[in-house]
Amino acid sequence: MVGMERAEQTPQILNAADLGVTACTRCHQVWPEGTPKCTRCGQPIMRRDHKSLQRVWALWLVGLMCYIPANLYPMLSTRTLFYVQEDTIVGGAIELYEYGSPGVALIILLASVAIPVGKFIAIAFLALSVTRPSAVSKGQRQLLYEVVEYIGRWSMIDIFVVAILSSLVQLKVLVSINPGVASIFFALSVIFTMLSAQAFDSRMIWDAQQDKGPSRQ
Fold this sequence. Notes:
The chain is mainly α. The chain has nine helices and five strands. The chain has helices at 2-9, 16-19, 52-72, 89-98, 102-129, 138-151, 157-168, 181-199, 203-211, and strands spanning 21-23, 30-32, 76-80, 84-87, 175-179. The strands form two sheets. The protein has a three-stranded antiparallel β-sheet with strand order 4-3-5. It starts with a helix and ends in a 6-residue tail after the last helix.
C-alpha cells in the first residue's frame, strides 16, 4: 500500500508533444504542433531532428581530422636575416615559457589544446549519451552542452594572436612573421567543432531520460 501511495504521488512528466506544441529551435517561440515554419524568424519547425546525430558525428570527425595536422605543422613562421624559425602550437607555448611569459604560454595551451580536446570529448559524450544509458543526469548534460557552445567563441584565440603578430611584425628585410600551414587546419577544426555542437539537438537529452522514467536532477 505504501508503494502504491508513493507511485500515485509521483508527478507525471509532460513534454511539449504531450501538450501538442513545438518550440522553434532558433527563437524558442512555441507553436501548435504541425506548424511548418516559425512566422517570427522563418525557421522551419520540427519536433525532433532525427538526422541531428549524423551531422554531429560527421562534423566532429572532420574537425578531429583537421585538428591533428594543426598540431603537427608549424603555426607560426618567423623569418630574419639569418634564419627561419617555425613553431608548432605546443612548441611556441614552450618557447614563450622559456622567454619568461608563463601566463601567455598557459593561455595558448588552454585555448589551443585543452579547450579543443575538451570540446571533442564533450560532444562525443553528449552524442553517445542519447543512445546509451548514462549515469550523468539530464540537467548536468544540458549544462555541459551550454558550456561547450559558450566556450566555442574562445577557441580561435591562437589564430587571433597569429593574425595580430603577422600584421604588426612586418619589417621586410629585417624580420617578418607569417602564419603557418597549421593555422588553416586549426581554424577549420574550430569551425567544424562549432558546427558539430550546433547540430546537436539538446532536446534528445530529455527524450532519452524521459523514456527511462524519472531520473536524478
